[in-house]
Amino acid sequence: MGIGRQRSNSMGRQRGEQLLELTDEELFKVEEINQKAPGKPRLHAVVRCNRCSEQVMLP
User: pLDDT tens digits for 2-46?
Assistant: First the structure.
């Protein structure tokens, strides 16, 4: 393994250790949003492809 790769691996390990030491508040931004949840999805008929037999939805 070359010196450049060793250095890169070492830096990656150090960064990983730094991330593990952070609190949830430092890692994530959590906030409430004022948006309605999407409605139920529309269901479409399913057919089987004549060539590969994979099932696909009709529009």
Answer: 666 777 678 888 999 999 999 999 999 999 999 999 999 888 899
- Distance between CA atoms of residues 51 and 3, nearest Å: 52
Kindly state whether residue 42 falls inside one of the protein's structural domains: no
**Beta bridge partners of residue 48, listed in sequence order:** 55
Give me the domain span that covers residue 15: 1-31
Phi and psi angles of residue 11, each rounded to the nearest 5 degrees, phi first: -65, -40
Give the residue carrying structure tokens 């393994």. 1
Note the pLDDT of residue 2.
63
Q: With respect to residue 41, please indicate whether it lies within any of the assigned structural domains.
A: no
**Quick one: tokens of 15?**
């960064």
Count of structural domains, the chain: 1
Whole-number Å distance between alpha carbons of 50 and 55:
10
